[in-house]
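Appendix C: a fully annotated inverse folding record. The material below is reproduced so that readers can follow the format used throughout the book. The structure is listed first as tokens, followed by the designed sequence.
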């Protein structure tokens, strides 16, 4: 195998293309966005991910990575395009179909096609394979096809791309073996071979498992608030049990993966997926939980003004897709409130973004919605002086609450509510 064409130069396609290029393969990265193609050909990046810029510039500098709007002949084609959902939470396979059709004119006997995009069960067999067969080559004999789902965590993408185990599902054994030869160029984790539909289900179950676990933590947060205990303390104590690993509550589950993928299962198996659907609904309900609490905290303030810390869907990344922080800010804005947002990672939003100082100025309540490391080092004493009132609602429990209290803030935390009767009787034991 000498040449690879990677379709889709986003969070998965670009690192994969770059790492293959730095492993010595001749790589053509394809994207429909001319701006992205130009940026990459100049050795730049259009997304923020630790280490990615260095890797891309090395890959482009070596001459092994080029970007283009159109595919070209190659030994292997990797499809790394998005699989969003459309109206009614139904999987939108448009980009998978378009990318498969785009490689068709270049396909030659002996080529390998890999679908990396997270896809509903049977997509490889029922959607991709029939399109490839339209070219007249027999899939599984003349051209090979496998599903190899990406499983890397944004924020730790490059490390996980190399170190994580890979599951490769071939439409037959030859396809799986051939795909394995490609991933051996850079994967240091173990490679596990299976069939394509099993690989699709493995990926969906991983993300659904996490979604259900986070929903359980969010449910606990609400119960804890109700009975006046600290959910975070419950979690850390319960997690001392060797077979328990509860996740963390938060303002909701964002990102393009966990908040989307379980719906693929609900769509395909509406009868069997009661738990999956319920978890999605609990997590999707969290932004409104935060909004209600913020409104209750500011109920006595005429025309309260909100300062939002964080827009990205999780800490230390710039991705705002399906972000609960964005949902909260949008809904408050739509209610007619004054809302200012600051995110050190996010450069563009369709509303105004503020600087750190201006986000605090003349506001009444700070909503801490994204756990960026930068927020842990804020100085609430000086920032608090810019505000009209000083209330903090920490939906992530990652700020130093003592510091914020000492700076005059009334500190409220998701999953932790002092019952009204106990207010003013000093801090809860073991809080934070
Ligand atoms: N979150 C919580 N509580 C937690 C953990 C996460 O509220 O305890 C929230 C985050 O703040 C975020 C959302 O969930 O809004 C998702 O974040 P994440 O870090 O759990 O996952 P993603 O979406 O960034 O990446 C996931 C990963 N899947 C798993 O860990 C099973 C990653 O390995 C996948 O490759 C990725 O989805 C994907 O592309 O499918």
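Designed amino acids, in order:
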């Amino acid at each position: 195998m000498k040449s690879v064409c990677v379709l889709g130069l986003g969070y998965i396609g670009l690192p994969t293309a770059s790492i293959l290029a730095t492993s010595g393969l001749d790589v053509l990265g394809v994207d429909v966005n001319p701006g992205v193609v130009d940026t990459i050909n100049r050795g730049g990046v259009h997304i923020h991910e630790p280490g990615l810029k260095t890797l891309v510039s090395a890959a482009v500098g070596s001459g092994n990575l080029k970007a283009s709007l159109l595919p070209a002949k190659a030994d292997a084609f990797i499809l790394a395009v998005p699989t969003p959902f459309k109206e009614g939470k139904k999987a939108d396979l448009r980009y998978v179909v378009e990318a498969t059709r785009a490689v068709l004119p270049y396909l030659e006997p002996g080529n390998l096609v890999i679908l990396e995009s997270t896809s509903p069960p049977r997509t490889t067999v029922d959607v991709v394979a029939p399109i490839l067969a339209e070219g007249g080559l027999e899939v599984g004999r003349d051209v090979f096809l496998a599903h190899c789902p990406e499983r890397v965590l944004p924020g730790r993408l490059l490390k996980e791309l190399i170190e994580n185990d890979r599951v490769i599902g071939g439409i037959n054994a030859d396809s799986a073996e051939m795909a394995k030869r490609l991933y051996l160029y850079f994967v240091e984790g173990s490679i596990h071979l299976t069939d394509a539909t099993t690989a699709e289900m493995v990926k969906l179950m991983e993300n659904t498992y996490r979604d259900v676990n986070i929903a359980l933590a969010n449910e606990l947060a609400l119960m804890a608030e109700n009975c006046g205990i600290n959910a975070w303390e419950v979690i850390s104590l319960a997690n001392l049990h060797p077979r328990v690993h509860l996740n963390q509550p938060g303002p909701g589950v964002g990102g393009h993966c966990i908040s989307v993928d379980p719906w693929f299962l609900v769509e395909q198996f509406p009868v069997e997926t009661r738990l999956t659907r319920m978890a999605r609904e609990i997590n999707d309900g969290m932004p409104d939980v935060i909004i209600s609490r913020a409104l209750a905290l500011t109920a006595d303030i005429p025309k309260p003004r909100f300062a939002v810390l964080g827009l990205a869907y999780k800490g230390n990344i710039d991705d705002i897709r399906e972000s609960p922080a964005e949902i909260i800010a949008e809904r408050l804005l739509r209610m007619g409130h004054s809302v200012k947002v600051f995110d050190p990672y996010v450069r563009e939003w369709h509303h105004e973004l503020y600087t750190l100082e201006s986000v605090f100025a003349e506001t009444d309540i700070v909503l801490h919605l994204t756990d960026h490391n930068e927020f842990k080092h804020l100085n609430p004493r000086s920032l608090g002086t810019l505000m009209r009132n000083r209330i903090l609602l920490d939906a992530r429990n990652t700020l130093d609450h003592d510091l914020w209290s000492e700076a005059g803030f009334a500190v409220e935390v998701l999953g932790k509510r002092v019952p009204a009767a106990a207010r003013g009787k000093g801090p809860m034991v073991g809080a934070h």
